[in-house]
Design goal:
Residues 1-30 form the signal peptide. Keywords: Signal. The radius of gyration is 16 Å and the shape is globular. The protein has one domain (1-200). Helix 3 (35-43) runs parallel beside helix 5. The chain contains 7 helices and 6 strands. It has helices at 3-10, 13-23, 35-43, 65-68, 75-85, 126-142, 184-191; strands spanning 98-107, 110-120, 149-153, 162-165, 172-176, 195-198. Strand 4 (162-165) and strand 5 (172-176) form a beta hairpin. Helix content is 34%, strand content 20%. It is of the alpha+beta class. The termini are far apart.
Length: 200
Amino acid sequence: MPTVLLRHALAPLSVLVLLAACTASQDTNAATSTLAQASSTAMATPSLPADDGEDAGLDDLDDSDELDDPANFDPAAHVRRQLAQQPARRGSGGPVQACTLSGRVTIAGHTEDIRDCMQSNGSLSVAEFQQACQGLANGLNQTGNAPAKIEYSNRCPTPAQGSCRNFMNSGMDAFYYQRTDLAPLPGSCAATGGRWQAGG
């Protein structure tokens, strides 16, 4: 896949990593060698031991050798398959809360300063939500970026450049404030079950 297409396909990395925070395994020691594997590791459910001698671990992206080939990897399709394979995970309930992550990220050779916020709808406890925010920051760090700064608040600030409401059917909203290229975000939001809203 050409670098430009890969960059646009993965530009909303924070959304993918947020799914990771909500559905990830607790294995934070997995070593990743590619961006595709990093996003997969973050989104992988706990794996069962393989009884057929084949690799069914965190580096097995889609339980298919053909789909594991980086030339065939489609991040949006991968997210849809992951969502279909697991039941919706809902938290134990809590207040509406938000966390803003800021820092410099590089995705497929494209570097930008980001300031993204995710806001719960009250479905997660404070501890669950903080774990999700930390998971998002850790996911960005796993892809070779410097640790993101996390700020907690009651709600995401307004106005925003745009937001993905109920992204990935998680019951949470993602807000974007400092993106230099918003063009790929509406499509990736819709492709993963969310509803894009300009401004916010």
